[in-house]
Design goal:
- The protein is an alpha+beta fold.
- The protein folds into 2 domains: 59 residues, no CATH class; 102 residues, Beta Barrel (Lipocalin), CATH 2.40.128.
- 19% of the residues lie in helices and 50% in strands.
- It has 1 helix and 10 strands, in the order E-E-H-E-E-E-E-E-E-E-E.
- The strands form 2 sheets. Strands 3-4-5-6-7-8-9-10 form an 8-stranded antiparallel barrel. A two-stranded antiparallel sheet has the order 1-2.
- The chain is globular, with a radius of gyration of 20 Å.
């Protein structure tokens, strides 16, 4: 029999089967197996909770009308990697921090099943209904390191390029 770990997040049950094949290996104690399971599944739990927080804030932001003269609010569309051609869904929540400084919280899909989220600060210059912005964020070595963003938006359309050491591409979004 194989041990199973399950946890519930908002009406969805994720069952993750941990298959540990330790035939007749007496050196692994129950304590070591528990530590191994915690090391594997605890990060998954934190990742799943992060998705829940973003989705909750996304739904809350839907109750507010998009401001006609500000970049803040919900955006959705697609991302595309130029070298590989990969493309998928992208959602973003932008909040104003102070004059000229915004926070963009992205949630991107990869191959329709994997989700990756991150937050970047954006320096924004506005004028005549147009916004120009740039920012950068270190997403860690696993995600490609330091990313630079540059783009423009109006009240209904958002366009940005991104570059890193290993990838470059575009974000295109509109108001939902």
């Amino acid at each position: 029999m194989f041990p199973a770990v399950s946890f519930v997040i908002r009406n969805s049950t994720f069952v993750i089967y941990a298959i540990i094949l330790l035939p007749r290996m007496r050196s692994f104690s129950t304590r070591m197996i528990r530590r191994l399971l915690l090391a594997i599944f605890l990060p998954l739990l934190f990742l799943a909770t992060g998705c829940h927080t973003f989705n909750h804030q996304w739904k809350q932001a839907a109750r507010q009308p998009a401001p006609p003269d500000d970049l803040s609010g919900r955006w959705q569309g697609t991302w595309k990697s130029e070298p590989s051609g990969h493309t998928d869904q992208l959602r973003c929540l932008i909040t104003r921090q102070s004059d000229g400084l915004y926070q963009a919280r992205f949630k991107a899909k990869y191959h329709t099943v994997l989700t990756f989220g991150y937050t970047i600060p954006l320096q924004v210059q506005s004028g005549k209904g147009e916004y120009k912005f740039n920012g950068k964020a270190d997403l860690g070595w696993l995600a490609g390191g330091l990313y630079h963003y540059e783009g423009h938006a109006n009240p209904t359309n958002y366009f940005s390029t991104y570059t890193s050491k290993y990838d470059h591409g575009i974000f295109q979004m509109t108001r939902p």
